[in-house]
Design a protein that fits this description.
With about 220 residues, the protein is mainly α. It folds into two domains: about 70 residues, Orthogonal Bundle (Helix Hairpins), CATH 1.10.287; about 130 residues, E3 ubiquitin-protein ligase SopA (Pectate Lyase C-like, 3 Solenoid), CATH 2.160.20. It is about 25% helix and about 0% strand. Strands 1-2 form a two-stranded antiparallel sheet. It is globular.
Length: about 220
């Protein structure tokens, strides 16, 4: 139990937190401690971030293993993740990530993907038009040629995303983090990125060469 409590503390949670709370805490902390958000020339912070991410990943994996076998989303006194369950098959837990890694060309139009973790997924040429991707974690996601027209990317984390030639027409990008994203040739015509004169999208280090900007001008 002391070991489990330590994992909860790493994720800044109280013991007994639900699986949803574990997943949300994990996404929040990865967002805060990801090395790409810290100065590259500060080796001390970079090292600290790597150590934090290692601990965060370990805590998330351990708590997912325990909570994934709990009937009410909270851990039991004795973890059962190594024991066979008659009413719940252990296979579905590891399988979804393997099945969902390559989602290229899939149709997710109008889908509710809010708060999902799609980091590293291949969604190239997928149809995400009108989809709700608000607060979705999409670090290093591949969206090359994807259709994101009229999608809601409010506060989505798209650090280092590959969005070359993506259709972002009339997409809501308010609060989204596109730092380091590759947006070469993307079409952002009519995309919402401002409130008045304030730019409300993070584009630090983003590659916008040849992208069609919201006002219709091509970025040089």
């Amino acid at each position: 139990m002391k070991e489990l409590e330590r994992y909860y503390r790493v994720l800044e949670l109280e013991p007994g937190a639900t699986l949803d709370e574990v997943n949300q805490a994990y996404k929040d902390l990865v967002f805060v401690w990801h090395p790409d958000r810290l100065p590259k020339d500060n080796s001390r912070l970079q090292q600290k971030a790597q150590e934090k991410l290692k601990a965060i990943n370990e805590a998330r994996d351990k708590l997912r293993s325990v909570n994934g076998n709990s009937s009410n989303g909270k851990h039991h006194t004795t973890p059962h993740y190594q024991s066979p369950q008659p009413t719940k098959s252990p296979q579905p837990t590891p399988q979804p990530p393997k099945q969902s890694t390559d989602l290229s060309g899939k149709d997710f139009s109008r889908a509710n993907l809010s708060n999902k973790d799609l980091s590293g997924r291949n969604l190239s040429y997928a149809n995400l038009s009108g989809a709700d991707l608000s607060d979705t974690f999409m670090h290093k996601v591949i969206l090359r040629g994807a259709n994101l027209s009229e999608a809601n990317l409010f506060r989505a984390n798209l650090l280092l995303a590959d969005m070359r030639e993506a259709n972002l027409r009339n997409t809501n990008l308010i609060g989204a983090d596109l730092s380091g994203a590759d947006l070469r040739g993307a079409d952002l015509t009519g995309a919402r990125i401002r409130s008045g004169d304030r730019l409300l999208v993070k584009l630090i280090g983003a590659n916008l060469a040849g992208a069609i900007m919201p006002d219709g001008n091509i970025h040089s």
